[in-house]
Amino acid sequence: MAGDERRAGIRERWDAYRAEAVAPRLLIVRQLPHAGAGLAAALLAVNVLLGLMPVLFVVETSVLIGRVPDAVRGGTDSAAWHALVTAFLVASAAFAGQQVLAPLQAALGERVQRRVDGYFTRRLMASSLAAVGIAPLEDQRTLDALREASRRLETSWHTPGHATAGLLALVARYTRLLALAVLVGAVTAPAAGAAILGAALVFRYGQRGGQRKYARVFKEHLPAEREAAYFRDVATGADAAKEIRVFGLAGWLSDRYRSSHLDSLYPMWRARRRIYLKPYFGYTALGLLTAGAVTAWTARGAAAGTFSLTALALALQAAVAALLLGEHYPESDANTQFGMDAVRGLADFESRLAERLPGDVTADATGDARGLPREGVRFRDVSFRYAGGRRPVLDGLDLVLRAGECTAIVGLNGAGKTTLVKLLARMYEPTGGTVLVDGQDVRTFAVDSWRRQIAVIFQDFNRYELSAADNIALGAVERPPDAAAVRSAAQKAGVAGALERLPRGYDTPLSRQYEGGAQLSGGQWQRVAIARALYALDAGARVLVLDEPTAALDVRAEREFFSRFVELTRGVTTLLISHRFSSVRHADRIVVLEDGRVAEDGTHGELLARGGRYAELFRLQAERFAEPERPGAAPAVPAPAEPTEDTP
Fold first, then answer.
1. With DSSP H G I counted as helix, E B as strand and the rest as coil, what are the percentages for the chain, rounded to 5?
2. What are the tens digits of pLDDT across the range 261-320?
């Protein structure tokens, strides 16, 4: 029984070692094809030569030392002198070879690193963009895997490329170690060479084992380090600079950063002492005993005349050099330990993408949606629940968006307005019911074909650090460059004047991080986003979706926009989402969403006359402009006691 338990314990430790030490090395080896066979072979050859050059130097300097007595006695014309000079020249060549090969190793290693990292960066982007919908990208576990992969690839160290180059660099170290051990065994005794090799490998085992243990501790305390990094980024970034100064947060941020940073460092310091300090007393003792034994053996043999002076010098140099190779390898160890984290994170991310999540979109259909809708879009008994959600956001929704009309959607936060837009754009699939386009299930159309029929400006639209022209033209990237269409879209959105006044006009990068770049105001950015949607309409899109299109505009700019809105969208199937009733009152139809369903449907006047939910919400918003004046306050804008069609 005891023997079985012992064998089980040994097997368990071996499995753990194989998982932590062997499997990552094999994973690194599998990355070599991404570097290119020729480049990998060249770096391998350089590392072998770089490993042998110091050994050749040891051999030739030992020969040189052994030739000195005979050369001195024989003079400069003797064979011994010529042999000494030859040994000196070869040793010098070996030394020079090291100086030439070292930068060549670094240059080739950098190329390997860039190729491998480039491959994984492209693969990460391709995997992320391959998700047809956004359900996987809003799943927390999938996002964690994506962040782990991208975090490693974004840094300049411990990447898969560094791990691959570092693994090849180990060839130089172990070639040298093996050759030195063979030399010791050849000039003294095989047992001495084996002892030196064994002691160096025990040192290496301790180094790598300690690093694996420390890596586990490091990962356990990453949350505290991430918190510290967050406080550091807040303190050093521009986004929070105003509030930090207004609220006097400088001292508080410094204290929180220091506290979080030390919370992560103290446990790691203690672990480092436990992992590295005490065990290395034993490793050091082993190294000293081995070196002492080999030295004593060789010295006694030299005194007895068994070993020559050359053999003595060779054995002593080789033994010491071999034992020093048991140390930490800065060019390899950390990189091979941490460099594969990105590969594992990417593999986890890709496996998560392969899982079918609720609401996930597939790209199996091939139908052509060009020119649709001609009749309209219908949400028929549509339900939707987010993964992990306790209740449906949409629950039996029946809604028709008639072609050529403007339909406005209003409702309280959480009513499902933005979710409806995501379903229309096929960011998600309904978990129940069907979305029909001219009576045909939207899932029968190719996803890209249908999306090209939709121009969407989400409430959280993206601000691209590109030129103003590119920010607008992104609405239809498949369209050939058309500067006139870009300017026309900007003119319709009311942002042309602002863009023309930029340092380089439409070619100005919209970010101050670039030379000659400029930053737009929130309202100007919103107009650029609207111009992007209008550019898509001009390129052939048939449905315009505006989710809070004037949220960042002031009252005057909003009024100006909507005074032109009807003309801009004439004949276009438009879905308008807004919490401002002055924005939706001109829509052909207004739909009130409540609890994931249509609560009311009609024109502005019809809904006011009905006196239902819309009229109630309208009245609440109107009352904001009719609050009693406070002393010293600006006069309030009067509002009618009862809502009317003309109430703004």
1. 65, 10, 30
2. 888 888 888 887 887 777 777 777 888 888 888 888 888 887 887 888 888 888 889 988
563 part of a folded domain: yes
Q: Are residues 89 and 192 in the same domain?
A: yes
Q: Is residue 148 part of a domain?
A: yes
Residue 428, number of CB atoms within 10 A of its CB: 21
Residues 422 and 318 in one domain: no
Q: How far apart are CA 178 and CA 194, in angstroms?
A: 10
Nearest CA to 614 among 641, 639, 590? 590
Domain span including residue 514? 376-623
Residues 321 and 466 in one domain: no
180 shares a domain with 35: yes
Whether 294 and 318 have beta carbons less than 8 Å apart is answered as no
Residue 604 in contact with residue 590, Cβ under 8 Å? yes
Within 361-462, residue ranges assigned H as helices are: 417-424, 447-451
DSSP state of 474: G
The CA–CA distances, whole Å, from 640 to 619, 626, 637 equal: 9, 8, 10
Give the C-alpha distances (Å, rounded to integers) separating 239 from 234, 235, 243. Answer: 8, 9, 9
Its pTM stands at 0.77
CATH number of the domain at 559, please.
3.40.50.300
